[in-house]
Design goal:
Blueprint lengths: L4 E7 L12 E6 L5 H9 L17 E6 L3 E5 L6 H4 L8 H9 L3 E9 L6 H12 L4 E6 L6 H16 L8 E3 L8 H20 L1
Parallel strand pairs: 2-4, 2-5, 5-6, 6-7
Antiparallel strand pairs: 1-3, 3-4
The structure holds guanosine-5'-triphosphate and magnesium ion (MG).
Amino acid sequence: MITRATFKCSSEKIGQVPKDNLPDIAFIGRSNVGKSSLINMLTQHKGLAKVSATPGKTKLINHFLINNEWYLVDLPGYGYARTSKSSRGTFAKIITDYVFKCEKMHFLFVLIDSRLDPQKIDLEFIEQLGLNSIPFGLIFTKIDKLSKAQLERSVSKYKQTLLENWEELPPMLISSSEKGTGREEIVQFIESILKYFNKCSDN
Ligand SMILES: Nc1nc2c(ncn2[C@@H]2O[C@H](COP(=O)(O)OP(=O)(O)OP(=O)(O)O)[C@@H](O)[C@H]2O)c(=O)[nH]1
Ligand SMILES: [Mg+2]
């Protein structure tokens, strides 16, 4: 259960993230997919993370302290034309540094727009996660825009696409920040991850 959520800090590089031992659960995905909205929905705290209809809103690594025990982390989106044209390549350095090098990062949710066919940029990013053994799951966002049948088709298409390259599927969840759908399942899933990491650090 999320009982307390407060903004902790914004970092422009990983050297600035909080120096405590509390684990990070982070959200990544294409610009505008709904990362910041999902953080507000999960914490039931409108306006905690900054949301905008214009892609490219979140530019820093934002830490939100949850129950004084762990962090939800809002990251900048990838695949936004203005940032992808930079010399740093498709994924900004701030993203790759955090995801692949930051020890605080315990689990990453890759958000996928449930309305779209599997996108190359997401598949490429997922491939990098797999190759680097980064623990991750998928969350299909904005499901309020689809019928039940459309959502099922979309998710099963995604599974098929992933199974072309992977033997095992990552955990998959669904959400609508507009309607609050998926909140309980996502929070429970995060709690099970945190319990697992707690057990590991006890031994
Ligand atoms: N209908 C609907 N709209 C959503 C949902 N989630 C987000 N949106 C809308 O999508 C737009 C982008 O939402 P953000 O949460 O700012 O997206 P983001 O992934 O944080 O975007 P960047 O920070 O730019 O990378 C906003 O206009 C939101 O209102 C959802 O579940 N349903
Ligand atoms: Mg954002």
